[in-house]
Design a protein that fits this description.
By secondary structure, the protein is α/β, with parallel strands linked by helices. The chain is about 45% helix and about 15% strand. The relative contact order is 0.15. Bound molecules: NADP nicotinamide-adenine-dinucleotide phosphate (NAP). NADP nicotinamide-adenine-dinucleotide phosphate (NAP) binds next to helix 1, strand 2 and helix 7. NADP nicotinamide-adenine-dinucleotide phosphate binds near residues 39 and 188.
């Protein structure tokens, strides 16, 4: 299927590894030009080289830095000739007990996982509407639907974003001009972050990493972790011309782990 987005420009935040890179790869294969971002320059440049090799006609530009910093967001927008597609992503907040968190911890989580995507959306959606095409994807988490107790900072900040997006996506001045905004909710995907989390669980429970991996897989009806490329392929479809009637949705990709009818 031709997704109809060849030649478009996308900003993909936090994209040197994991789910962000999976999205960038899928968009690159469709001929989408990219501005990608991450804090570590070495992995970011490696990712850019990998992406350029996927399509002969695309440009791939990089912006190093923490996307939660206003100057980095400005650089991202300045590097992109025209933002047709925006994939919002950032590292997730650390786990812990809410009794230990201070105001600063909450502000940091809300900055990275709620206010940063909102700022980027604010800077781009009216231009998308004026041009009659726009796609915004926010990578959030399955924790928005089924909260994880030790990830309270994530549960809270991402739910704030989700509530805001539910209203914004339905504005006729966006939805009526072919600008869609959707959230993608990953369950367990086999990325560096997941591997680190599994090692932490193994250490704290005095179990082997293999047994933790095995028990986590048993919790998922698909009996496996997701792959970043399947996440990316889904993201690319939502960015396609075929998905213009899909907006304001929370789309869970979790191998069936969430046990609910709706
Ligand atoms: P990952 O494998 O650790 O990759 C994270 C990517 O984001 C890296 O390229 C990292 O590069 C970049 N990054 C992190 N913080 C950044 C920041 N502040 N500014 C710019 N770039 C940043 O993580 P992932 O598994 O792909 O997770 C992506 C998001 O999905 C996270 O928010 C995570 O909480 C969420 N999520 C993941 C899963 C899962 O199973 N994997 C499940 C639920 C939710 P640098 O470190 O060099 O910046």
């Amino acid at each position: 299927m031709d997704l109809g987005i060849s030649g478009r420009w996308a900003v993909v935040c936090a994209a040197s590894k994991g789910l962000g890179l999976g999205c960038a790869r899928a968009l690159a294969k469709e001929g989408v030009n990219l501005v990608i971002n991450a804090r570590g320059s070495e992995a970011l440049e490696q990712a850019a080289q990998q992406l350029r090799a996927l399509h002969p006609a695309i440009e791939v530009l990089t912006v190093v830095g923490d996307v939660a910093q206003p100057s980095v967001r400005e650089a991202l927008l300045a590097a992109c000739p025209q933002v047709d597609i925006l994939v919002n992503n950032a590292g997730g907040p650390p786990p812990g007990d809410f009794r230990d968190w201070q105001r600063e911890d909450w502000l940091k989580a809300m900055d990275a996982n709620m206010l940063t995507p909102i700022e980027l959306i604010k800077a781009t959606v009216d231009g998308m509407a004026a041009r009659g095409f726009g796609r915004v994807i926010n990578i959030t988490s399955g924790a928005v639907k089924a909260p994880i107790d030790i990830l309270g900072l994530s549960n809270g900040a991402r739910s704030g974003l989700t509530g805001f997006i539910a209203g914004l996506a339905r504005q006729p001045q966006l939805a009526g001009h072919n600008v869609t905004i959707n959230n993608l909710l990953p369950g367990s995907f086999d990325t560096e972050r997941l591997q680190k989390n599994l090692h932490t669980i193994a250490q704290s429970s005095a179990s082997s990493v293999d047994s933790v991996i095995d028990s986590q897989r048993q919790l998922i009806p698909a009996r496996r972790f997701g792959e970043a490329d399947e996440f990316g392929a889904f993201c690319a479809f939502i960015c396609s011309t075929h998905a213009g009637y899909l907006t304001g949705q929370n789309l869970l990709l979790d191998g069936g782990a969430y046990s609910g009818t709706f």
